[in-house]
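From the pipeline queue, job 12 of 40. The input is one protein chain; the requested action is below.

Action: predict structure.
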Amino acid sequence: MNDIVNPASVPASETSAPEAPETVATYLRLRGLKPSAKNWRKKKRVSIDDENAPFAPGRDPGALGAVLDKLSRDSGWQITLAREDLVRQWADLAGADTAKHSEPVSLERGLLTVKCDSTAWAKNLQYMRATILTEIGRRYPDAGVENLRFIGPDVPSWKWGPRVVPGRGPRDTYG
């Protein structure tokens, strides 16, 4: 019982040091030791990382579509993916009947070139240019399509083979 010190008999200046918590000061007084700064060292606390804390907001797995959208945005793939979607879904955009007779062939510097089966289809689509361009801008704003060009079928070419002669080609064949 000699080790126990009555807290009332200890002067107020010795009861606790400003750095020592009350529970530590009480423990030290009961042990018969004087609470001081050198007996008490404040432990370094590890800062809690809110992003990695369990049950914190935002820790639930995200939807697959949202994760892929974030990945494509962060990687800079938005424009490329929008252009590929435009070409792949041309039938939905232009209509099934129109898609049977036309197909997008290139997209360079904001100009979408569409090749048609005949010059008649190219001319009719030329009349529908504003409607198609508006629909492309509404559905695929990241594609960067600013203008449309409709071309007809290519004319036959005689410029092939190992012995090509310059000129307009055979003219006496068609009578």
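Job complete. The beta strands are 102-108, 111-116, 147-151.
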